[in-house]
Amino acid sequence: MFPLIFQIPQLPDLKSQKYTSQYGQGVRQKVLSSQKDFLLLLSDIGRVYNLTFSIRYRYTPGLPFDKRLGIYLVFNQSQPISPDTETQITEDIKKIITDGFLNQFYKIELQIEVPQIQNLSWVDCIGEAIKHEEIISTRFQDSKDYRKTKGLPNYYVPLQLEADEANDMLVVCQEMDRKRRRNTRKFTNSHHAGFI
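^ thats the sequence. predicted structure below, dont judge the formating
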């Protein structure tokens, strides 16, 4: 069943009467707040179920204007699990994603297969940005040098990326369009803190 792939087929028109009558001038802030809460929820889901999720933007300039940008949420199971557990996790995620609080702005649909993001044989260049990490001692008083010589267990913890409250991904989408060729952006959250 994994990977589970959900698509956001279109972005909402936040200037429409539907949203302005409910949220007034604060509609954009409400969407950003909902997105932030949603990402925190996905992070919690990843920790509870030992999942990795990514948000993928796929841009195909040859398609009609309203179909050029594809936005996907992809969930992967990082360790083998029993079929019964996998079925339960899959059902839980489907319910959270399709019926969750973000559905007031976005229609999120489960996809069976999405070859455009699963088969990346067309890719000729890959770049990567890595977020900062921190090594935390299990004993506060230990110095870094002392830990190295004594081989004490430590935790490796990827730090959260700092959110830019003013960023709504418009710049990323403009950059994807500016390339005038098919391209994809993948943002992944991984929960693999452990001993080093």
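Strands lie at 4-8, 51-59, 69-77, 109-111, 133-137, 154-158, 183-189, 194-195.
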